[in-house]
Amino acid sequence: MATVKVPATNTQLDDAAEIAAFLKPYGIWHERWDVEGRIGDDATAEEILAAYEPEIERLKVAGGYVTADVINVSPETPNLDAMLARFDKEHTHSEDEVRFTVRGHGVFWVNPENGDPVFAIEVGVGDLINVPRGTKHWFHLCNDRTIRCIRLFQEMAGWTPEYMDNGVHVEHPPVCWGPNFLTAEAASAALGDGPVRL
Ligand SMILES: [Fe+2]
């Protein structure tokens, strides 16, 4: 279940209806999809896309998405830190960023264009969120350094970021606070190689 947090106002939202109401003005939607028994632990990308085909097809029609794939990130991922460094700096895309999590956790940070304070959405298994095109955002992994997501794209070119380079992301430590809560200090101590980030 997703959690929303606004550090500047010390606000945390755990209720699905409250989260939806909070996100709506920013054009962000969150859905919970039924996951029980849909895929096995060792499901291939093709099996995952097939299992969630009804939901994917619904989104394609609603949002003009033309293709879907599955991204798989784990501590064993080659060049993981280099991959994470592409995601953890404030950026935008020319298309929506749509992610449905089937394994692991992650945090989407959003820097609203209207001057509202930065907020974060922690997602886990069963959470679908949409970060609209042009929205300034960045992404961190949680301490399990694991996330497997279905991604939908409106352009066949796929994931193309445009970085802001104004340093806002540096002001927000890459920590999770939901079921996977871990402080930055604890993460550093546990890993011995700096905080956890994606
Ligand atoms: Fe992004």
Automatic annotation (TrEMBL):
Gene Ontology biological process terms in this record: L-methionine salvage from methylthioadenosine; L-methionine salvage from S-adenosylmethionine
Catalysis performed (reactions): 1,2-dihydroxy-5-(methylsulfanyl)pent-1-en-3-one + O2 = 4-methylsulfanyl-2-oxobutanoate + formate + 2 H(+); 1,2-dihydroxy-5-(methylsulfanyl)pent-1-en-3-one + O2 = 3-(methylsulfanyl)propanoate + CO + formate + 2 H(+)
Site positions for May play a role in transmitting local conformational changes: D96
GO function term, MF aspect, one: acireductone dioxygenase (Ni2+-requiring) activity
Gene3D superfamilies with a match to the protein in the record: Jelly Rolls
The organism's place on the tree of life at top rank: Bacteria
Binding site for Fe(2+): H91, H93, E97, H137
Keyword flag Nucleotide-binding: no
Pfam entry (one): ARD
EC assignment: 1.13.11.54, 1.13.11.53
Cited InterPro entries: ARD, ARD_bac, RmlC-like_jellyroll, RmlC_Cupin_sf
Necessary cofactors: Ni(2+); Fe(2+)
Cofactor binding mode and count: Binds 1 nickel ion per monomer. Binds 1 Fe(2+) cation per monomer.
Chain positions of site May play a role in metal incorporation in vivo: E90
Keywords recorded for this protein, A-Z: Amino-acid biosynthesis, Dioxygenase, Iron, Metal-binding, Methionine biosynthesis, Nickel, Oxidoreductase
Keyword presence, Cytoplasm: no
Pathway given in the UniProt record: Amino-acid biosynthesis; L-methionine biosynthesis via salvage pathway; L-methionine from S-methyl-5-thio-alpha-D-ribose 1-phosphate: step 5/6
Subunit structure: Monomer.
Assigned protein family: Belongs to the acireductone dioxygenase (ARD) family.
Entries under HAMAP family matching the protein: Salvage_MtnD
Function per UniProt: Catalyzes 2 different reactions between oxygene and the acireductone 1,2-dihydroxy-3-keto-5-methylthiopentene (DHK-MTPene) depending upon the metal bound in the active site. Fe-containing acireductone dioxygenase (Fe-ARD) produces formate and 2-keto-4-methylthiobutyrate (KMTB), the alpha-ketoacid precursor of methionine in the methionine recycle pathway. Ni-containing acireductone dioxygenase (Ni-ARD) produces methylthiopropionate, carbon monoxide and formate, and does not lie on the methionine recycle pathway.
Name of the protein described by the UniProt record: Acireductone dioxygenase
Species whose genome carries this gene: Botrimarina mediterranea
Gene from which the chain derives: mtnD
